[in-house]
Amino acid sequence: MPGQIKDLLSRIADYVELDDFVRRMRQMPLRGHLFYLSIFLIVGYFAVAARIVSYQPGELVDKNEKEPISKTVKEETDREVQPDPPSQTATIQDFSTSVENPGASVSSDVLVAPYPLGVSPYEKGKAEEGKGNFDAACKLFRDGAAQKDAKSINGLGACYFNGWGGVPDYRKAIDHFHAAAEMGWYKATANLAYAYKQGLGVPRDIDRASRLLKQVKKPIREAATRGDKWAQNLFGAMHNEGLGVPADPAEAVKWFREAANLGLASAQYNLGWAHGNGDGVPLSYVRAHMWFSIAASNGHRGGELGKDTFEGLMDAAQLAEAQELARKWIEGHQN
């Protein structure tokens, strides 16, 4: 033990250059060694403690830690909330919730005093949104929201959700969706369900998303039956995911196809994955590529990625067939 302590003090001397002191320490009895060693330990403790306290928040950072990835909502030509780009194992696009989809048929449940068509702030906002003038659209939605118009409140929520005119603010979006949903606007309830399913602005809660969609499945089904492509795609996604309704992939494909034939890019994208995964239809890479091509031509960003995914799984003849099918479909559905 005395030898170990003397060796330790010799090493300390190499660093602090206290040779004379250490030589005297070597001549001391063990009790003296222990006394001075305790002094060194006490001084060292307070020095370390002082250093730790001097750190400011954020100073101790793992250099390998990545910055958090901010969640964004992609904007499509039909102004829908889209999921992340697909992978080969991706599932049907989540709801394809058109948070405010231009061209959606007007619901019969007027929640405030009616305006002449095209005169209300909401209708004007929808017109500006359809042109891609999002700042003007959001200003008009804000004007309508001030008049307690549920559709305008939902539209303003869409502005926050999509980050139109800035960055997404999911918390404000959720507040507006809640307010419009409480006023009875079913699309706001569907938007809340999407937020809970994705965990955007609220904790992710699939069960709650399912309960919310179950509450509004009747008006969604009615709107889908009337030809509302937004509702058709949503109703298809509900059946595909088993949210608010029993899971039924074939029924999902039926509604996706209705909306896709009306030109909804996200429904076309969903059909691509249905064929690519064999969900509700026979597995067909050719048909999957065809629908991804159509969706891409309609401005859907995921469509290009879907095409790339399946091109690597097809031979030249299959690829040529898929491209020809897509070309004919596009030509046959041009206005």
Could you write a compact summary of the structure shown?
63% of the residues lie in helices and 0% in strands.
Q: Which stretches of 5+ consecutive residues score pLDDT under 50?
A: 1-25, 43-118
What is the helix content?
55-70%
| Strand count | 0
Q: What is the chain-wise order of helices and strands?
A: HHHHHHHHHHHHHHHH
Globular, elongated, flat, extended or rod-shaped: what is the shape? globular
Strand content: under 5%
In angstroms, what is the radius of gyration?
32 Å
List keywords for this structure.
0% strand, 16 helices, 335 residues, mainly alpha
Provide an overview of this structure.
There is one protein chain. The chain has 335 residues and is mostly helical. It has a domain at 2-54. 63% of the residues lie in helices and 0% in strands. It is built from 16 helices and no strands. Helix 13 (265-277) packs antiparallel against helix 14 (285-297). The termini are far apart.
